[in-house]
Amino acid sequence: MKRLTPQLLICFFLVSITATTTAQEVAAHSIKAALPFATEEAAKSNAATSAILDQPAAKLTNALSNHFPAADQQQWWHYKDGYYVKFLNGERKARAVFNKKGMLQYAITDCNLTQLPLLLREKIAQNYSGYTLLHAMEINAHAAVAHQAVLHNEKGYITLKATAGQIEEVDATTN
Q1: Angle CA(27)–CA(30)–CA(35) in degrees, nearest 5?
Q2: CB-based contacts of 68: which residues, under 8 Å, 6+ apart?
Q3: What is the pLDDT of residues 101-135, one digit of tens each?
Q4: pTM over cut 0.70
Q5: Domains in the chain, start-ordered, CATH in brackets?
């Protein structure tokens, strides 16, 4: 049996997070597009299957506080498979999904350059000096942490992913 490549494992990981992930979203390597409610646009499109929670259950707010003690300005939604919350973690925008039992499934937190791991910042400085950071995020899922950075310049976009001390270019698009 052949050894699974990191890209294939990432695809399996993304598919395991949500059954609604499409092949196009995985191929685009866009965490925001691949996960339910990851963006405001996705949240709006899921409005028919979700409901705003004015008073979320204590198990949910306690679970959020356990993972994110600085969570503030919480906005909760209930959808068929669990709960979604959008909040500020300190001054960073964050989103998280909890299952019906109140267990954290994944969380995505926006980052700036200084909040990325040192190894990723060094790689960007050394290999992508003509690029600027368009968007970065920290993804916490299944007891693993990954960082994604989207860089751009006049030639196009590059997406870098960092996990456990390894960095790889997962997508590149030219204008």
Answers
A1: 105
A2: 87, 89, 94, 96, 107
A3: 999 999 999 999 999 999 999 999 999 999 999 99
A4: yes
A5: 36-107 (3.10.450.360)
